[in-house]
């Protein structure tokens, strides 16, 4: 027997419907807002290069997690909302990044404090 936990973890992050056994995550349409937050962060991190800018990653996470809102708002209200991310989404992003760091997918960089370094490449 040759166990490979990295492959199992990557499969669980890419296709959480196999582990969670739910219908909301079913299908392979890519990144969806119905996925768990760590899975969304993992999908977005695989689309980046060697260094991942945390602010850009957060903005992509928010745009996936929170679909665009249809009600009309003033420009000033939209600008104020876009500058300040939702606290719940921000906390979910921070938790997801911490979990990916704990699992060994990313690590902090010494030179650029606003970036993380990818440690894994390819699919399983």
* Main sheet makeup: 3 strands, antiparallel
Structural class: mainly alpha
The mean pLDDT is 82
Cα separation of the termini: 18 Å
The proportion of strand residues reads: 5-15%
Q: Based on DSSP secondary structure assignment, what is the total number of beta strands?
A: 3
- Identify the strand order in the major beta sheet: 1-3-2
Q: How many H/I helices?
A: 6
SSE blueprint and pairings:
Elements: H1 5-14, H2 17-20, H3 37-46, E1 51-53, H4 54-65, H5 75-83, H6 87-103, E2 106-108, E3 115-118
Antiparallel strand pairs: 1-3, 2-3
Describe the structure concisely.
The protein is mainly alpha-helical. The protein is built from six helices and three strands, in the order αααβαααββ.
Description of the structure:
- This protein has 124 residues and is mostly helical.
- Helices cover 50% and strands 8% of the residues.
- It contains six helices and three strands.
- It has helices at 5-14, 17-20, 37-46, 54-65, 75-83, 87-103; strands at 51-53, 106-108, 115-118.
- It has a three-stranded antiparallel beta sheet.
- Helix 3 (37-46) packs across helix 4 (54-65) and helix 3 (37-46) packs across helix 6 (87-103).
- The mean pLDDT is 82.
